[in-house]
Amino acid sequence: MKNITFLIILLVSSVIYLVFYPKFTISAPPTSVKDTLSSSQLSYFARIGTGVSAGDSLIRIALTGNPSNTTNNLFVGDTIGIGTTGTGVGISGPLTIYTIKDIGNTGLFQINSAIGQSNAWVGAAIISTHSAIHTISFTPQSNFTAGFWEFLIKATNTAGETINDGIPDTNGFDLGATTPSSGANGVGTRLKITDVTCPTWGIGATTAYSIGSTTITSGVGTTAAYHVITCYLGIGGTNQIGVGYSMAIGKDLASGSQLINPSPKDSNEGAADVYTFYIRHKDSSSVLFDSDTIQGKIAVVEAVRVSATVDPTLTFTIDAVGVGTGSTACGNTFASNAANTTATQVAFGSITLGSANDLGQRLSAITNSDNGYVVTVYEDGTMKNVSNATTIPDTTCPSNSCTIASPALWTTYSASGWGYTIQNINVGTSLFHYTAGYKPFGNGTANAQEIMKNTTTPTTTEQAYVCYRLTASTTQEAGNYENRLIYTATSTF
User: Fold this and answer.
1) Is residue 174 situated within a structural domain?
2) Pair (154, 270) in one structural domain
3) Angstrom distance (rounded) from CA 464 to CA 450
4) Across-strand partners of 177?
5) What is the tens place of the pLDDT at every residue in 121-170?
6) pLDDT tens figures, 240-287
7) 339 phi/psi in degrees, rounded to 5
8) Which domain holds residue 164?
9) CB contact set of 34 (below 8 Å; sequence gap of 6+)
């Protein structure tokens, strides 16, 4: 009985000891350690150079003495903040937000609006932040029940720089400002514990236990500052050994915040700036176990601007496709003389007096312009007898009801007249349609009229039929008549 009692006491004591004095496995740092950044692009920090005045939209930068001394690593569409006079002298003071519209050369860029008076001073900071989600992977080789894992990301300890003002630092990742720069100091909000996704231990929360900072000795005689993100295993929780885990520092900017990438350490563009990060292990009493500490490296570098020029294109053609004998366009069926229509000839031949004589051509246009194209037409003089000055007048449809700008129905043909109408096949913008009637051609370049157009980039070749109508009274002088039409296609870039 005494032996049984002794065993029971020993068992209970062992359980109590394990609960209140948890043991850890043999100490060893994690393996397979890496920090993958969603963007390894350096942030941008330059200053306004000489020759910039209020009202300018072209911004010159100072070419020496700053983390960024060229416009390299800037891109069209980037949001930039420009410092103001007063608090912080453009370093940690309020920023005015602009957008980059164009980049001229390595010392000049254009913004979307005129710079304000408070920004137009030599030395004003120019920043463009780039941030990243840090996905840290590691495989633990030890554990503490209810312990902690800490992830240390380099922060600045350089004089004049602040680790959490939203301004990119030259010596570490910035934690972000409390509010965006429209009313405070930096771009982006400060990283919060809810922006961190800790490993799924099976016990405990997956959000960070805490976010703080520390100073550690990194190398012999070198002291460095770090952001510390702590994940807790939870009461009674342990991590597995030899099993890979991952955690994410930062969330999509639409729902959270990210650490801001550093600005360049020096002017050696294209050479990555390398930073150390650490993974540390603590027991349930937050006592650091140095033997489990391991370091890794992060490299950030300027983005590569890849540029190419797509030359502007514009194609315009006139042909006789779909307007031959027996074809129907603009509500008209073309007679046998339509066989003589080509890209450069509309040959009515012998016309029928007192009747509508109808022929047509097809117009086609395509461009890669952002603002599309427009095709105009005008006549170079009226339709005239080649032997004398006798004319067939421009139509009035036929009772002064149509003009070069306004169509009207043309249903009686006893009077002589010359005009046109349009059938839109797939043109982006309909100008007028044959069901609205006909128009006379404008005479001379000053009276050119739009005949087809699109105000955006067409997705395909756009086409329309232009249908010509000629009438002659029974008293119209005999002879051969001619007229010249000038079509002009223009794209807007």
Assistant:
1) yes
2) yes
3) 13
4) 189
5) 899 999 999 999 999 999 999 989 999 999 999 999 999 899 998 889 99
6) 999 999 999 999 888 889 999 999 999 899 999 999 999 999 999 999
7) -65, -20
8) 32-37+132-300
9) 136, 137, 138, 296
